Amino acid sequence: MEFQADADLPPILTVEGVNVWLSGRQILHDVNFRIEAGEFTGLIGSNGAGKTTLLRVILGLESPTSGRVLVGGRPRSPRNPLIGYVPQKILLDPDMPLRARDLVALGLDGHRFGLPRRSTAQKVLIDEMIDAVDATSFADARVGILSGGEQQRVLIAHALISRPRLLLLDEPLANLDIRSEQEVVELVARIASEQQIAVLISAHDMNPLLPVMDRVIYVAAGRVASGTTEEVVTTEALSELYGHHVDVVQINERILVVAGRETAAHHDHSDSRAE
Amino acid sequence: MAGSLAPVFEPGFFSSSPVHVALIVGGVVAIVSGVVGTFTVMRGQAFAGHSLADIGTAGGSAAFLVGVSPLYGFVTMNLIAAGAMELIGIRRPRGRDLATGIVLGAALGLAALFLYLDTTHSSTTGATINVLFGSIFEFPSSLVPVIATFSVVATGIVLLSYRPLLLSSLSPDLAAARGVPVRLVGIGYLVSLAVAVSLSAVTIGAILSTALLIGPAAAALRITKRAPLAMAIAAAAGVAATWLGILLAYDSYDWAPGHRGWPVSFFVVTLVFAFYLVIHMSIGRSHGHGHPSVGTGAA
Ligand SMILES: Nc1ncnc2c1ncn2[C@@H]1O[C@H](COP(=O)(O)OP(=O)(O)OP(=O)(O)O)[C@@H](O)[C@H]1O
Ligand SMILES: [Mg+2]
Q1: Are strands A40-44 and A198-203 parallel, antiparallel or unpaired?
Q2: Ligand 1 atom closest to the CA of A46, numbered from 1
Q3: Domains defined along chain A, listed by start
């Protein structure tokens, strides 16, 4: 999982002084961080913290009020082939006439106009990608009937088939049981390290990501702290980020962030789940 | 052969020129409806489709007053309405229904006025019946090239933007992140829908045009898990229902009451509905992994 950043390569992602206002409310406050090529980064924060907004700004789906985003050292372009993306909410209707295979193929050429005609090489690539995410057994089923974990794998294949250098996954672990959660994390980590892809993955619970995460970006109420887990996930750092006291405690290899005594009513600030 | 089929194919069916025009126009329009309708169902825009038909009534009835074919009235009105819906905010599902509803209300008022004027102006209800229930047997053959042009435009837009349209129907964000001009693709599709609904309205009438747009497509989407095949099945089913409807309507000039013939649209819509019911009942609500369905072959 360790990847030494090449000194010659610019960071794959640079976010500098980004502020975002939506409908008269400030959603992100002066966000700064960098992601080096091939790094696996967790974007951790509770509901409404601003994770999705930050990912949308990186993608160019939302414009920052101030600040800038560089992808591969350059201002990002509208269609950036360096970035692969899996959105948080995607409703796949069971009646949608689309096989898992078709969704993966749309990752290759879904932006192209004209009638689809795919070469043998492209079909082989589609099959390989489906195989890489262990989706071969359901490749010809309608995507709408697949389980949450299966759909997540198909969407990851859709995002990866265009060979991006940065993969943005918005809450891919939501609604998954512990086993599928682990499967998806291991799968993403394996492909990312094989193909040297940087990953930015949002989650409200950091624990499933701890074994594979190089760095963490912690979001609380639109403010961000980034660094290694040891640097960021500490009582001092997170208390400062939240603006009030929180405790970081470790129980059975799991890290829990709990609201301090003075603000015990603020359970929503806990990013951990009771098991 | 002629002897055994005589009761089905009434004398004169194949030699009647209005029948030729009806078969051509009806067939072409059914193909357009199948192709465009498949995306209408997938995008959950059946309400917008139906509303466009109602809205178009204002244009169709106005066309009578100024003495041009209702086709032009429908197309003009529907394109304006589609533009208004897009401006008000058809992109968000909720905004979409609201936008549709607002435009619909305004247009229905106009339609009521023009239909009233049509009736008082000509002292007959002929215009009203034509607009609401179609006039496929009275279709001037000079309009066939116009119908063909509109059909090519509507199906062409959908087929050429097939992949971006499919992706933005799945998820606008996913499409936008891939660089699809989601808004432009949506507008293009809305133009196709406006034209398809207009074509359908002049053949089987404004009131029933949604049936041809939605029915075959909805049934086709139950049969296959592949979008291109769904479009083909919807088009074929629509053509079959339309042609059979024309045949039955022609035959019905011998039927009770009064030997004046039953409306084509009644037959077409009934056949489409029957087709949907048969598919619905034979497939049921389940789509298992191994469910036998058309198109499981390789890409
Ligand atoms: N278009 C918008 N207009 C106004 N406010 C918005 C908009 N989009 C998001 N917000 C607000 O921004 C805040 C952050 O939302 P965001 O979706 O980024 O949170 P999140 O961290 O992804 O949460 P979750 O874990 O629930 O997905 C929320 O309070 C939300 O209400
Ligand atoms: Mg979110």
Answers
A1: parallel
A2: 25
A3: 1-82+164-236 (3.40.50.300), 92-162 (no CATH)
The tokens describing B295, both together, are: 């198109």
Q: Maximum CA pair distance of chain B?
A: 63
The answer to whether A87 contacts B173, with C-beta atoms less than 8 Å apart, is: yes
Span B208-265, pLDDT tens digits: 888 899 999 999 998 998 899 999 999 999 999 999 998 888 887 777 776 677 888 8
Which CATH number is B180's domain given? 1.10.3470.10
Residues of B in contact with A94 (CB under 8 A): 287
Q: If you measure from the C-alpha of residue A172 to the centroid of ligand 2, how many angstroms do you get, rounded to a whole number?
A: 10
What is the complex's ipTM, to 2 decimals? 0.83
CB neighbour burial string for A43-67, b if at least 16 within 10 angstroms, e if fewer: bbbbeebbbbbbbbbbbbbbebeeb
Q: Which helix (H) or strand (E) holds A204?
A: none
Helices (H), chain A: 51-59, 100-109, 120-132, 148-160, 178-195, 229-232, 235-242
pTM greater than 0.90 (yes/no): no
Count structural domains, chain B: 1
pLDDT tens-digit readout, B136-193: 787 888 889 999 999 999 999 999 999 999 999 898 889 998 889 998 999 999 999 9
Any atom of ligand 1 within 6 Å of the Cβ of A22? yes
Instruction: Tell me whether residues A110 and B166 touch, CB distance under 8 A.
Output: yes
Q: How far is A114 from chain B (nearest CA, A)?
A: 4
Task: Provide residues of A within 8 Å CB-CB of chain B.
Answer: 56, 59, 61, 78-80, 83, 85-87, 90-99, 101-103, 105-107, 109-116, 118, 123, 126, 138, 140-142, 144-145, 158
